[in-house]
Amino acid sequence: xxxxxxxxxxxxxxxxxxxxxxxxxxxxxxxxxxxxxxxxxxxxxxxxxxxxxxxxxxxxxxxxxxxxxxxxxxxxxxxxxxxxxxxxxxxxxxxxxxxxxxxxxxxxxxxxxxxxxxxxxxxxxxxxxxxxxxxxxxxxxxxxxxxxxxxxxxxxxxxxxxxxxxxxxxxxxxxxxxxxxxxxxxxxxxxxxxxxxxxxxxxxxxxxxxxxxxxxxxxxxxxxxxxxxxxxxxxxxxxxxxxxxxxxxxxxxxxxxxxxxxxxxxxxxxxxxxxxxxxxxxxxxxxxxxxxxxxxxxxxxxxxxxxxxxxxxxxxxxxxxxxxxxxxxxxxxxxxxxxxxxxxxxxxxxxxxxxxxxxxxxxxxxxxxxxxxxxxxxxxxxxxxxxxxxxxxxxxxxxxxxxxxxxxxxxxxx
Length: 414
Known about the structure:
Largest sheet: 7 strands, mixed
Number of helices: 22
Mean pLDDT: 91
Shape: globular
Structural class: alpha+beta
Strand content: 5-15%
Strand order of the largest sheet: 3-4-5-2-1-6-7
Low-confidence stretches: none
Oligomer: single chain
Number of strands: 9
């Protein structure tokens, strides 16, 4: 069933002439893309909205938003206008022309700002000279669209440079910025988001670390010919993005070298100990951005472990086992090898990583440990014994047996 027909099913036929799809829903329909969220504008009395199952979520607002969740469709939000003649005025107050489109329930498009033309050329143009002033977080929404391949129209660029924005941005909840950041990280060109922030010098109140990166060397030039930390971080994120669509993996890729910002400049271009130095700053960054706890843990441990991961082939089996256990607990078992590979010029991986993870996750029974004897062991000795047993198994399964082609111990079937 089409989106329009789904919306029709919500309202009596008498209401249909006064209901319009707007914004992203119309944009997605015209681009033949799946509709993510359904936003409507309606010139319908509140009593009819209540009858249809909608509830106000901002009753004190001059333009209250009415909300309903429909399992087959998802979230539906309605902006109420006083009369159908006010529709174009409502559209002109929106952010960008590609979102200032409406479609009635007969499929006819209302386009007062030539948004369809901008849609065809993938141009992101502000609706008015007040579009960004009305809600400065729209700046980062523009950067998020750029991360999805949209071009900033000259009018939008002009408005970005029309004033200093940091005071206005500092009054906006950081969660709104972080939502745009997370969405941008999931797009096809996430590097655009950070690049445009730096290019237009916007967002230092949210991400001050970003604006220091270009002033810090990535490392000695023989290892980092790209030069500065920002360029290096961008390259690592792009390489991760080429292999994974996971926003968290890309986030960890970009900020994996956060500890290099802690290096005393007198020690440049080297950054000894930057992996450990990045652990606490990573936590603080995520706390400041109100990012999920899982993101905080993942970034902190990516910072701490990525140097070891880069030297995987040189590590002792004991160290590999400990690192696998730490990675699994931090939720980066898949992320760490991606970042490590992207961090190295040759793109080499961590051979045997999956095997180490598998052995690390084995139960005592799977490792052939007598449970009764294990439970009688002093508690303080158990962790060391488990590690020792894992190392023994790893040495067996990771040692080649060229004659038989088979190990005396196999992970298959565990």
